[in-house]
Amino acid sequence: MSFESFKRPIQKKNLRKDRSIAECILCIFLAIVVSIIGIHVLYNDIYYDLEILVYCCVMAASQYSLLKSCQPDVNTPVHGFNRNTAISRAIYFCLFSSLLLLIHKLKTYSWHCILFGIIFSNIAVCYMIYNILSIILLCLPLLFLFGLLPQCSTFFLCILENFDMHLFGGTAMINIPGALHSFLLSIINFIFLSIIGYYGLLIDTSKDHMQNILFSIYCGLTVSICYKLSRGSSNPNVFWNMIKYDLLKIKRIIRQNEDIQDPLPDKLRTIVKERLQSDILLCFLICIVVFAAHASTTFTSLQPILNYIICSIVIILGTLFHYVLPQVRKQLPWLLFSEPLIKQADYALFEPTEATKVLFIEKLFVWIVFIEKNILLPCTYLGALSHSAPMVINKFGLLPSILILTLCSMKMLRIGYCNPSRHFLYVLLTTIMTYLMTSKCSETFLLNYFVLSTLTEKLIDFKEKLNFIFVYCAPWQISWGSAFHAIAQPFCIPHSAILVVQCLMSALLNSPLMPLLGSAAFISSYPRPIKFWEKNYNTKRIDNTNVQLQAQINEFHCGLDDNNLNAIFYEHLTRVLQASLCGEIQLGRLGKVNTGDFFILTSDSLNCMIHLIELGNGFITFQLRGLEFKGTYCQQREVEAITEDIDKNRGLCCCEAGRFPHMLSLNAAFTQRWLAWEVICLKFVVDGYSIKENKFNETVVGYDLRKRLISLMIKAVIFYAIRSDQLVSWLENEQIRQAMMQFSDPDQVDVDPSFTTLFDDDFKVGAGGVTKKTFTFVYGSWMNLCNNKRQIPLSSSQEDDLITFCFILSLLARRTLSSSLPSHHTALLEIYHENFVHGFYSLFKGDFRLAHKDEWAFADMSLLKNVIAQGVRMSLKLNQDSFLEMSEYLDNEKLYEDIAQNDTNLVITHEASPEWRNAILSNKPSLLALRRALVESIDEYRIVMLDRRHLSFRIVKVSKECVRGFWASQQHELIFLRNRNPERGSIQNAKQVLRNMINSSSDQPIGYPIFVSPLITSYSSTSKPINDIIGGELAWNLIKKTFSTFFQRAHVFFLSHCVGNASGTNEVIQLAERRTMSTVTAAAHAQQSSFSVPATSTLPDQIRPLSIQQNMNTNNSGEMPVNNTVSNKKILPSDQQTSVLVKRTSDSLVTTTITTTTTTTTTTTNDEPTRRRSSLSTELNISDRNNRKMFNALNNSTSTTIYSNKDLCTSSNNQINKSMVTYSTNGSSNEKVIIIDTTAIYDSINLGRRIDVIWPNEQMRLNGGRNVWSGWMPSVGMTGLVVHRWIPRHRDARQRSHIDKCILLVHIDKHDKFVPIAEHGVRFIGESTYL
Question: Region Disordered: what ranges (predicted)?
């Protein structure tokens, strides 16, 4: 080699450049370590002859890769240079060589053990591992060539994940810091429990019955710690943020431009805090209960019968609820039936109108799983430990025994808590192996469970890989995407045996089996974690906050296309699933779920894939990948295959023989069995947005339509200008007043090319422009109305300034619209239709280009933002609605109401604005935007309308080996083989495996999803159905509140039974006064005092504590009128009285309230408390049960006040005063009617059906129908009071009649019944106090 080869320019080309000093130091260190370890391997004579040469070449290649690495390598997950790949070869060489040296030293030690009837000798095991490692070291270049080893970071994550899952029963790992956190946590708890268990066994001398306190503490701690480990996610970021911001009180750094805060991090931190509080309490409780159960000798004295009973219960419940129930709830149970055997409540509905109702079987399933986790699992563990511990100690000794027992216990408990559906299967296999097989081939229950759980997982993976191969290569449904596929198909048949070996090896190593270039030739990829992708990739939304202003004007150059704008709907779906997905899984609506499962959700426009990564106790970590709305042809074909109606398939081989009712035909059943996916649920209901699009181009085609749009725009601008709180300051602004002075003359003409008689209603033909006088003539009444609707209308002296200000604003809006048009169209008469639409769109998104004469608007930029922009956007909505109700918009009152209502309930903004994303993620009910789309190089403008409602998705479960195989194949083809053909055969549609949808969902740039969410965790505590069934998280405040309420009720109960105790009676009175006063005061602060309720009040307004009549006649005993006796016999005005009188009689505890202002109080006479106490003390012992019931009813009721006579129990001759009932409803409370036609009575609309009316309150409904009248029926001549009215087609659903007749709700006081009756069935007989 000449000296020229070592010159610097040539070496720069041959060697890669290190970008940092740390990287250079790391490479030097690895090169030195490779040399040292290689020398030790050669020194120990591990290799001989030619093997030494090969080993030296491998060592040299490892060192050279630090200087010049192969890029791209087969195992690299990204395009371009990957630094992890550059150092991976050296790290693998050091790792395998070190293990080889370690095994070489361990061969000298001799020991053996017998497990499952097999003798495991140290020498035999070490020689086997020694030979494997020596071969692997020599074959390292080939392993790297075929991509069988991942990069070092991925390898480290896989090792930690598999160790934690198969040794300690953990779940999947999200990233390396999380994996280290979870694995170290498992190790620390394992050591801690082993120490306690060791000393517990050390105390026990017999070693036959582990009944001592310390070992019972060990059992309790094991269950409680495993419960806590199963409740924690492998991502510790939220937990550390909670410690940082809540415990350490570190102030969060808020960015300057971050106006809108994302509520999700704070929500997750609150949830984790609540779960942590609950876990601390429950772990303490579990530890005590398990300790007591083990110390009771129940699990030692009843062996082995107790184990048989517990395992039988676990197996029976598991078979029924984890196998049979998910099958009968599938869309195609056992692939034999054509519909579910247990259907959801909304299964037959075309579109859901509410959230899916929880079925009884779902509640039962939740409770069964709860019992399995919290009762049967600890019992199974204690029984297995009591059975296994003595035998393990006798076989292995004390120290190894406690390590084995602790390891097996942790795995069993954590699997049982995290995945009950797999736990029952492991228990079934373990029971068969432990109690039915011979003792030579079996070990104890815990050891059998530990081994069988791992073997079963590997066998299931092996079965799924074979199933994927068979489905994909079936000759009757193969879909060749290219000529290579057709050639590779027949050549793969002779290699079937090798394929089975590959399946077995890939199942053991947890590596996907990928089709080469999408063909039928399969090769193994490198091991991957359950998360699969090494790079934490998620899409970033492009909007006005992260795009330069110049790029915003030409939006297609910055990525503001349809896909970017549609990604927000998948982000919203992710937030919705974050709150509900875990609860839906616990209700069993997604069938049997395991770690790493894939689901595809399809609807009319949304198609996404959900990857379940981490499955824990009460939480799910998942990732959502959204596909294009209007996908490719291949994607549409696969969506059609998912939504295909297989009921129409009635084929039997080659003929149409039909099928049995509710059963699949033979051809359909055969076809469904040869698919790598399965429909789980036909209607999965979640909250979302229905998307409607209209073409804006078609709404402004003619001159008249454009003229109407401009007129509505001007009215909307006037509305926002007059309604603004800054109107007075604008009118007084000096710069604005100078602009207004130009039009002091009403006939002053503004001549501008943008004004024309074709578009402007106020255009003056003779003057050739727009004048203030014509503007006032056209829009004067509208300005008048807007001014009168202000909270403080402007005076008449300011009317001229107001008109002038609105006039110059209208000129500004119209000129801005004209200046937003393309520059080569200066005269409005020359503007074509497309240019007008483009100009309006530019104005809608906030592209204001002001003329020189309109620069006065810069005096306050809020004029453009809050008046012009809002007016332009509101005009779009008004123009859209005008096609439906144009006649109503001619009425200014109606137009004003619509604008005000839309301004309150509707969000109108551009989709690139951050307010649009914030509104969607905040679940605003309605949104509207104007979108520009490029369709075949033609601009198309669409009005996008969003309405929040319940969306129905079809859920499809896809084989996880199918998805992992296709993803690995695409990564290998695009990155390593560099196939850049956009129409390559590996992404063509294959309906049996959904090849195109799976490949499209992979990370960019391999796939092309429009949205990829970060890894997000869903908790069961955010699911309302789960909280309603088993309750939420156990918190300190809840316990404190529960105990406080219990002791308070106990205090009241015991005081009320103190006979003759005047002081106790007084405390009861004071307690009741405090409770009632708090209720009345809260109501008084919440609403104004009033004796009447408007007829149009809504239900929340109707349920108010109303004032009652102030003056009541005295009773026969001469009692003073209630609330009228004051000091010095002065009666305060009714609007200043606030009094609460609590009276205890023989059958009621009565409260009289008067709602008034809170600034004054009522002073009672000095003898009133004494007289009240004396009257109550003599009656405390009479009818205590009725008194308590009335006291409870008093606290809960806010719409009914009951008066009762004090001396009812002592004088039977006194007249009983009827209860006075005052209702806050839409019916007049003083209308008395008489029934004249009983056929008009609707006695069955109180059954709570969806077709029934909505009742004012539940008490009325429960007393308003034939089913509760108990034989009583209303008759002609009965009189009553109208308390509610249902009107046909009423806007409020609570006041809407379900038929075309007005229905009255009449209270028959004599029988205390509520009678719904049509209005023609009664006759009004005037007003009445109706006592």
Answer: 1158-1177
Judge whether 624 and 570 are in contact, CB under 8 Å. yes
pLDDT tens digits along 653-711:
777 777 788 888 888 888 899 999 999 998 899 999 998 888 888 888 888 888 889 99
The answer to whether the beta carbons of residues 287 and 221 sit under 8 Å apart is yes
Q: Quick one: tokens of 1168?
A: 């009133």
* Range 60-71 average pLDDT: 81
pLDDT of residue 1116 exceeding 50: no
Rounded distance, CA 1137 to CA 1162, Å? 6
What three-state secondary structure class fits 82?
coil
Mean pLDDT over 1276-1287 rounds to 90
> 112 or 471: whose pLDDT is higher?
471
Is the link from the previous residue into 1274 a cis peptide, with omega within 30 of 0? no
Residue 206 has pLDDT above 60, yes or no: no
> Given the structure tokens 């401009």, which residue do they identify?
710
Q: pLDDT per residue over 72-127, tens digit each? A: 777 777 776 777 777 888 999 999 999 999 988 887 777 777 888 788 787 888 88
- Residue 268: pLDDT over 90: no
User: Taking phi first (over 0 means left), then psi (-120 to 50 degrees means alpha), and beta for anything else, what does residue 70 get?
Assistant: beta
- Determine how β-strand 1303-1308 pairs with β-strand 1279-1288: antiparallel
**Cross-strand bridge partners of residue 557:** none
Residues in CB range of 799: below 8 A, 6 or more apart: 787
Helix axis angle, 305-319 to 420-435, nearest 10°: 140
Percent helix, percent strand, percent coil in the chain, to nearest 5: 55, 10, 35
Max distance between CA atoms of the chain, in angstroms, equals 132
Bridge partners (DSSP) listed for residue 928: 908, 945
Global pTM value = 0.76
The first and second tokens of residue 389, run together, are 């511990």
The mean pLDDT of 937-958, rounded to a whole number, is: 89
Helix 152-168 × helix 398-418 angle, to 10°: 100
Mean pLDDT of 722-749: 88
Rounded CA gap, 179 and 322, in Å? Answer: 30
User: Which residues pair with residue 952 across a beta bridge?
Assistant: 685
Nearest to 1245 by CA among 1260, 1226, 1261: 1261
Q: What angle do CA 52, 55, 58 make, to 5 degrees?
A: 155
Both structure tokens of 978: 């560099």
DSSP 718-762: HHHHHHSTTHHHHHH-HHHHHHHHTT-STT-EE--TT--TTT-TT
User: How many CB atoms within 10 Å of residue 473?
Assistant: 19
List 602's β-bridge partners, or say none: 607, 954
Give the confidence band of 1269 by pLDDT, cuts at 50, 70, 90. confident
* Residues facing residue 69 across a β-bridge: none
